[in-house]
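FYI - complex with pyridoxal-5'-phosphate, inputs then prediction.
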Amino acid sequence: MDFSRGRQYRAIPGPSVVPESVLRAMHRASPNIYEGEIIGMTETIVGDLRRIARTESDVAMYICNGHGAWETALANMVGAGDRVLVCGIDHFALGWGEVAKRLKAQVEFLDFGKRTPVDPARVEERLRQDKTGQIKAVLVTHVDTATSIRNDVAAVRQAMDRAGHAALLAADCIASLACDRMEMDEWGVDVLVAASQKGLMLPPGLGFVLFNAKAGAVRSRLSDVSAYWDWVPRAKPKQFYEYFAGTAPTHHLFGLRASLDMLHAEGIEAVWARHEHLAHAIWAACDAWSQNGPLQLNVKDAVNRSRAVTSLRIGAPNGFQLRQWLEENTEVTLGIGLGMADPGDQSALGYFRIGHMGHINAHMVLGLLGAVQAGLEFLGIPHGPGGLDAAIRVISQPGCCSLPIPVKARQQPGNVKHS
Ligand SMILES: *Cc1c(COP(=O)(O)O)cnc(C)c1O
């Protein structure tokens, strides 16, 4: 029996599902880049990215993926020899720290393991030791997409303030922007890094760095930022080409305009609530399955979990077999385990991830969970009963996990006003 027809669901944590309206917006002829609609439209995009991140900060946009956004954030805030404190040793914290090393910064990691979030008290302690202010930037991943840990960025800022330390706080929000609540200004984030292919529902190809006045002042003291990565002309372009230091990513911009329209039509609070709720449905199923057998949520406490991706442990080779069975039989693709074991090590086959970011809804999540349960049963992987039912309860009784219920805005796409 072959069930693998119909729409597929790539439930991987990026690139996420691209909505039809975004695809349609991108499917068009090339525009003039010297005059016409793209110029005014790009201005509206800048304003709307601020709205999504809840900030008055400057916005610099790049043709790049998340790694490029990491690099440009660092290139504009730390010089060679400056010290950088990286909070965490999970996959993406290590990756960002590695980029800083290659830029000749002195990089220091705080180790909180792969199942628990950053402990702000330890950040405070380390910063208090830095009496001469050697540390110029504190890097934190808001959501680590490998472990699915969500760090409390506001608490890291409070720790920095308690220590009276002047370093910049930079947050990697690549996997969390437009999924998990992010209040850039209220939480005291100086530099925010994001990319197009996760909560923003676009194909990969755009990177974003948002930076406040304090970060801007630090940048102005650096003498050798490359012309291409410099965030100054991109944030304050005098000519349109300066937004991207060359030809703009025209079709990505049309797509981004469409995805921002969708986010605003729904309302960012409702977007967060939808992610929250669907995440709880996934965890309810996982909790039930984990009552018996090898399945475990990687992050024990829900407060510390991403609302966009969930990492699971299931023992080798179960993780591999489950992914393979779903891929071949259900048109659901699960994410591989990342950074949990050495890739060559047999134990690496004992992990998988569920991506639930961006353009997702109840039927996609229930279908995904039904497919996982079918896979567990087919493969004879021991698991507790009632996983799918537990998820159905969360979806059908929105009050049961005391979450705000998403309010659906009923606007027509064409009528959306943007700032
Ligand atoms: C996806 C991701 C990245 C890397 O993005 P690329 O586009 O693959 O370079 C970095 N950090 C986090 C938290 C991510 O989720």
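The chain has two domains: 20-265, 268-395. The mean pLDDT is 94.
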